[in-house]
């Protein structure tokens, strides 16, 4: 059994508030949202960090962004806009080591990020 939190959500071992799923990706609401809409898009395949990406992950990575576009549209964010973020390791403030694309929207963002 996997020790990875997001693999457990993928496998239904712990609950996730799932909003989208296809062959490659799963998306669920963030448990601690930083904006009115905060959704995490994960690959179904376990990949720990962006540093672990290989050439044959290219399709999965593309599917993550296509899912982000699709979900943003469903959530009514396409025109107002939104942010997509991958955090990597300590300086990126990654806390869950199964890569995930944050889809954040529903309010004005600021730049630079903290
Ligand atoms: P990161 O800091 O980029 O690794 O992001 C991890 C994200 O996972 C944070 O935004 C957390 O709020 C979120 N998170 C942690 N546990 C859960 C959970 N059980 N279900 C949904 N989101 C979670
Ligand atoms: Zn995992």
Can you tag this structure with a few keywords?
binds adenosine monophosphate; 5-stranded antiparallel β-sheet; single chain; HIT family, subunit A; 5 strands; binds zinc ion; alpha+beta; 114 residues
Secondary-structure blueprint:
Elements: H1 5-10, E1 18-21, E2 25-29, E3 37-43, H2 58-74, E4 82-85, H3 89-92, E5 101-105
Bound molecules: adenosine monophosphate (AMP) and zinc ion (ZN).
Give structural notes.
By secondary structure, the protein is an alpha+beta fold. The chain has one domain (5-105): HIT-like (HIT family, subunit A). Helix content is 24%, strand content 22%. The protein has 3 helices and 5 strands, in the order αβββαβαβ. It has helices spanning 5-10, 58-74, 89-92, and strands at residues 18-21, 25-29, 37-43, 82-85, 101-105. Strands 1-2-3-5-4 form a 5-stranded antiparallel β-sheet, with helices on one face. A hairpin with a 3-residue loop joins β1 (18-21) and β2. It starts with a helix and ends in a 9-residue tail after the last strand. Zinc ion binds next to α1.
